[in-house]
Amino acid sequence: MNDIVETSGHLDADIHFIQSKTTSYLKLIQDENEKIHSIFDDNVRDFQGDNPVNKKIKNTFESKDFDLFCVLNNGVTIVSSSITPAGNRFTIRDYKVVNGCQTSHVLHDCREIEGIEQVFLPIKIVVTENEDIKTNITLETNSQTEVKTEQLEAISVFQKRLELYFNAEKNSIPLYYERRS
Questions:
Q1: Residue 98 in contact with residue 43, Cβ under 8 Å?
Q2: CA 111, 114, 120, 122: dihedral to nearest 10 degrees?
Q3: What is the pLDDT of residues 70-106, one digit of tens each?
């Protein structure tokens, strides 16, 4: 799937959304010796190692939940100076992965897992020669409001039921329960 998003003409960039087989993506990030090369230089963070998020990504691969990966993972963002289509393939030049360093490294580390080639990776490719746009894409795709681990509990079935219970209770002294900040 390669969808091109048409812009109003004010944006000096083209945006492509694709789902790539992991084998194709690995060719993009690895050199001929299967070592990851320097396409992550413009990423705001280097690989963070065996942290809890990377462990979850790795667990998805190791448990062979390949179909789930593309819906659980936000994928990667690549900026490129040019793209040349050729049938159902294309060539990108002067590219950097500006978001997705963690996913890329875990995928690289798990590349020998049997069946990994079945995994699809969501990829957004932004093609522009405008360096300011490239920098802003890097900054914005790596910026989000911090979510603390305990805040993730707010979406559990128990918390939702507890909220419904408090909302349904009619007491002379009202009780309130807030499950989300």
A1: yes
A2: -30
A3: 899 999 999 999 999 888 888 999 999 999 999 999 9
CB 21 within 8 A of CB 117: yes
Strands 120-127 and 76-86, by their bridges, are parallel
- Distance between CA atoms of 47 and 98, rounded to whole angstroms? 12
Amino acid (1-letter code) at residue 143 = S
At residue 110's C-alpha, the angle toward residues 89 and 83, to 5°, is 20
Pair of tokens at residue 23:
């084998």
In terms of residues, how long is the chain? Answer: 181
Give CA–CA dist 40/95, Å, rounded.
9
DSSP structural state of residue 7: P
Look at the block and give the residue holding tokens 């409001």: 145
Q: How far apart are CA 99 and CA 79, in angstroms?
A: 9
Say what the pTM is. Answer: 0.80
Which of these, 9, 39, 7, 180, lies nearest to 108 by C-alpha position?
39
